[in-house]
Design brief:
Length: 136
């Protein structure tokens, strides 16, 4: 699961770490507009949303997010950061034309976005979760 991302917004490069308060992710709306939304929920935040910044694809299919009126969204980022099992940090580029899939949730007037994760298919990968990459 990505711990940080790099993206461009309004001609400025942003490096955002989930652990930091007020972490925002860009979300591409259906009309093409990019809107910055709060990335998940940190433990100390006063909110009814789930704690964390990630949503397992299997849990979405199982209906565990249904009370938050979930909608799939595209998150246009340039790179994401993950720490492997040995504690080494790695940055991975997202191919141009592809997006990280997000899950837009809301409770009353509060909106948050979570990064959708999958179990890697390759057996020799050193991560237990990987962001879901989509083309459209």
């Amino acid at each position: 699961m990505p711990e940080a991302v790099i993206y461009q917004h309004e001609e400025k490069k942003h490096t955002v770490y989930f652990a930091r308060t007020k972490a925002l992710l860009p979300v591409r709306l259906a009309n093409g507009e990019i809107k910055l939304l709060t990335w998940g929920r940190r433990q100390h935040e006063n909110s009814e949303m789930p704690v964390g910044g990630w949503a397992r694809l299997a849990s979405i299919y199982d209906g565990k997010w249904s009370q938050y009126t979930p909608k799939p969204v595209r998150i246009p980022i340039d790179k994401f950061m993950k720490t492997d099992y040995e504690g080494h940090v790695h940055w991975y580029e997202v191919t141009k034309g592809q997006y990280v899939q997000g899950l837009l949730t809301h409770e009353q007037n509060e909106y948050r976005v979570y990064i959708v994760t999958i179990i890697p298919e390759m057996l020799d990968v050193c991560y237990d979760r990987w962001p879901r990459i989509i083309a459209r």
